[in-house]
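Q: Hi! First time doing this. I have a protein sequence and I read that you can turn it into a structure. Is that right? Here it is:
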Amino acid sequence: MGAKVTICPYYLMNRPDPALDRLQALLQRYSVSAHIFHSGPLCGLHDFDDNGMGQLHLLGRGPVEVHHAGERLLVQAPSLLFYPRPLPHRFITDPATGADLACANLAFGPGRDNPLARALPPFLCLPLAELQSAGPVLELLFEEAFSRRCGRLAVVDRLFEVVLVLLLRHLLDSGRLRGGPLAGLGHPLLARALVAMHERPAEPWTLDSLAHVAGMSRSRFADVFAQTVGQPPARYLAGFRIALAQDALRRGEPLERIAEQVGYGSGAALSRAFSAECGLSPRQWRRQAGGHSGLQC
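A: Yes, that's right. Below is the predicted 3D structure, encoded as structure tokens:
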């Protein structure tokens, strides 16, 4: 007979609600697409410049020496190397034997102001063995990436996107993120309020109503939210609404409709909030964004 396992009551009380999908609303509103640009051995020195996109590298066989922003890291085990935002970096491998890598550009829509991209650290290295439940996906991804099968690029692109979602889930569940919206989504109580804001941004949320959704007192909710997410609830909600408005402006939607979608009573009210946040009116911002896909506040 196996040993009896006792589950800690604190864990049972403080784990996230399994019925609460903490990522769905963000992934629906802010798409992420992947496009593979390298698969196979990488030998010697290779620089990855700022191309306006994030990048995800899957190391199947190393070692590889990673350089970025004045830092150096030697990665020997099969690992995931993740740059959610543009950051020039250099990989150095053995000139003769090289390292096996599958690499993809990540397009976080809309542009660089995607809340998912902004919520993540500039660089993340994670052994593939730690990415639970991803084994079959990674095995298929490497098999397709290193083959010459018909349609392999489309298959690998989709698999990279699946790996990214599994990575985000892992970060939420593991508590590795110490600040920002994803850290808040990893909190068992704050997640309820954040998901509510993400799913229903047009509701007239107040500190009291959000605290009620979270199941916390008003003062406790305000304190824990600010400590975990890094800003007060009202400030986060305002920024999220403006980010939604920017996405809608890019799509050419009329201002009055956008105001209704993101929780402002009129186009004039949205214009005031938008100008206060971005320093530009929605009309000015849309005109500039037309020539600069990465424009943000």
